[in-house]
Amino acid sequence: MKIGVDFDGVVIDSERLAADIFAKRSEEMGRKLVRPNEWGNLRWDWTFAEWARWLQEYEDVITFDSNAMEGVKEAIDILREAGFRLYLITARQEIHTDSDTGQQFFVPEVQSAHERLKQLGITFDDYFFGIHDKAKFCSENGINIMIDDKPKQCENLSNAGVFALKFLCKHNIVMPENENLKNVKSWQEILERIEEFEARFDIRDRKLNLPKINPKRG
């Protein structure tokens, strides 16, 4: 079975830190909160260029000062040892282009993600960056389960028939659940949902019985 894993807000708690820094800067600039359920310059009254320059300034802080999600390394190790194929699938990219002006901004998000994963001792079977339409990508590449924190991504994944596990965190919302979409609050709950998914489709001829995460090692 193939499992896709987002980076920000799933592997590391970067969305929380980024949201706090972004909100503070917005207040200092006197900008208004215009779309509470959006992210980045769409959430506050910023131009794309202002957001990109902010990201250039704070990307290292967001990536390396954010905590790893509790239990993430152990859970990923458990899943890989159980025979699952795990793929990092993230929208992170190094060139951000303003669609209105064509201006490009370089942000070393890919390099820093690799460095942070190495620092945490986390390994995936493959790595995919710059993936904005995750429903399309997962459908075309046979990804059975995708773990993400963005509501719209999870909605699209569910509609495309991909089992979406939506990681709840500070900036996002609890979504209505259905057969292909479940809210999760921890990596321990992710393991339990994956077990349920396998049992539902009788993928194995035996109960998966994944071990529980030891909090001290998470």
Description:
This protein has 218 residues and is an alpha/beta fold. The chain has a domain at 2-12 and 68-201: HAD superfamily/HAD-like (Rossmann fold, 3-Layer(aba) Sandwich), CATH 3.40.50. The chain has seven helices and eight strands. A six-stranded parallel sheet has the order 5-2-1-6-7-8, sandwiched between helices. A two-stranded antiparallel ribbon has the order 3-4. A hairpin with a 6-residue loop joins strand 3 and strand 4. Helix 1 (14-29) packs across helix 2, helix 2 runs parallel beside helix 4 and helix 5 (134-140) runs parallel beside helix 6. It is globular. The two termini are 24 Å apart.
CATH architecture of one domain: 3-Layer(aba) Sandwich
Q: What best-fitting shape do the alpha-carbon axes yield?
A: globular
The counted number of beta strands is 8
Q: Biggest β-sheet, characterized?
A: 6 strands, parallel
Strand content: 5-15%
Radius of gyration: 18 Å
CATH class of one domain: Alpha Beta
CATH superfamily of one domain: HAD superfamily/HAD-like
Mean pLDDT equals: 89
Distance between the termini: 24 Å
Structural class: alpha/beta
Sketch the topology as an H/E string, one letter per element. EHHHEEEHEHEHEEH
Counted by DSSP, the helix tally is: 7
CATH topology of one domain: Rossmann fold
Low-confidence stretches: none
What topology, given as strand order, has the largest sheet?
5-2-1-6-7-8
What percent of residues adopt helix (DSSP H or I)? 25-40%
Topology, pairings included?
Elements: E1 2-5, H1 14-29, H2 48-65, H3 72-81, E2 85-89, E3 95-97, E4 104-106, H4 109-120, E5 126-128, H5 134-140, E6 145-148, H6 151-159, E7 163-167, E8 181-184, H7 187-201
Parallel strand pairs: 1-2, 1-6, 2-5, 6-7, 7-8
Antiparallel strand pairs: 3-4
Helix pairs in contact: 1-2, 2-4, 5-6
